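Hmm, what's this shape?
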Amino acid sequence: MPAVPRVAVTGVGMALPLGLSVGEVRERMSRGEGGIGPLRRFDPASYACHVSAEVPEFDLSASLRFPKNQKFMSKSVLCAMRAALEAVTASEIDFSRFDPFRFGVYTGSGQTGLESAVFFDALDLVAAGDEAQDFANLGGRASRLIDPYFSLRTLANAGVGLLSAEFGARGPSGNFVQGDTASALAIASGYYDLVEGRADVVLAGGYDSLLDVSTYLAYEKAGLLSPSTPERAYRPFDRTRDGIVLGEGAGFLVMERLDDAKGRRGPIVGEIVGVGSSMEALDTLEAKTSEHALRSAIEAATGGQACDFVVAHGIGTQAADRREADLLRAVVGPHMPVTAFKGLTGYLGAATASVEAVLALLAVEQRAVPAIARLGEGDPDLQLDFVVGHARPLDRESPTALCLSWSWFGQCSALCVRARRS
């Protein structure tokens, strides 16, 4: 039976509150800085949570093959495009040597960014107090007060379409919307296309922006947001953890079969060892309840081999972190080093898995497990080996990391990444 091809990552890119490039993110992380700060996107004065993780404004028009397409992009798709451009550039791919029908693109996407305020000016103009008349008057001048591109900017699959057009990719493609696991499923799809021979190069990742009023209010009403100051908000696994900080951003990877990447002498960041996912249907936000589902996902991702450390989901609420810790003790044991990234990045929704996979690749490349940001006093009841204070060196030549994500309603995903080796 032929050996399963190894899958190399030849380029990575990020657009995060931490920075707009891999280099900037790496530098800020090395200085112990995070991306969480005051919420500036709108005024939250009447609510308890006043913090967020916002990506700085930027303009891509000078970088795009089709600059006019920028007007179709929401903030989250702009982040996706920026991260993808960096990943593709870093991969040093000569697209003239690739069949475009064997270039795949997979994305995970989240909030569409649709806000009811886009209609307010038009509704104010036509409001007559008569419901039938109000609707009758929506044409003409009133309709011209509505952003003509709002529908395109709010499509869940806008990213995969615009990325495919930008890079001339005509191969297999798809978009996933399963919450935090969406971009893990995007990476998994690209991985299997390479292993099973349907594609020669794949761009995969995820993007999201949770910083609109309606999303904020939904999380606030559910009691999930942290009321702490920007300096203390979002402390996964801390004894005094008190909730989530909403954010935005994107992370993308370029993947190829390892032999192909070596054949073209391309840069190799690391490898995707394996991918796994499973689902326990839950009609509740009480996720992370199935040990069997987690074991299944990890077995698929690792093939039963031990990893050097775990990138936990670390969502940052009292109950969810406790449930995750219970599962990790049962499945990987209490002595496995555990880190988490959300205290650095904020909660990124559908971008979560791909961003954390990129950060894990940077960690194994540096042979060190990053400390959990903002973890002051670990919760002793969780009984795990959390990496606290400083990065922990890894002495293996080619260490591996296991990255875990859960959706709110029961889906879990596992990605195993490895440092470059011969």
